[in-house]
Specification:
It is built from 3 helices and 2 strands, in the order ββααα. By secondary structure, the protein is mainly alpha-helical.
Length: about 80
């Protein structure tokens, strides 16, 4: 963790991110968003073949939020919205 945070004003009680630390945090957040977006793209390919709009839209919303996995979204569409 060296170089990511530093003590502010030398008082030892306050820490702040260095520019390198801020960049590392932003990179981690980007990585976190990559998985749901990739799943959305895969899901779009799966349902483009004619899924019912309402279950497909609901599943897409849940997938984009990251609350469902790709498998859960596809299963929701396959069952027509029924659990």
């Amino acid at each position: 963790m060296a170089g990511l945070v530093e003590q502010r004003d030398g008082d030892g009680s306050t820490l702040r991110l260095t520019p390198v630390g801020a960049a590392a945090l932003r990179a981690a957040k980007c990585d976190e968003l990559t998985a749901p977006l990739s799943a959305v793209a895969s899901y779009a390919n799966t349902v483009s073949g004619g899924a019912a709009p309402r279950p497909a839209g609901y599943a897409l919303k849940r997938l984009a939020e990251g609350t469902w996995t790709l498998e859960q979204a596809e299963a929701h569409v396959r069952t027509g919205g029924g659990e």
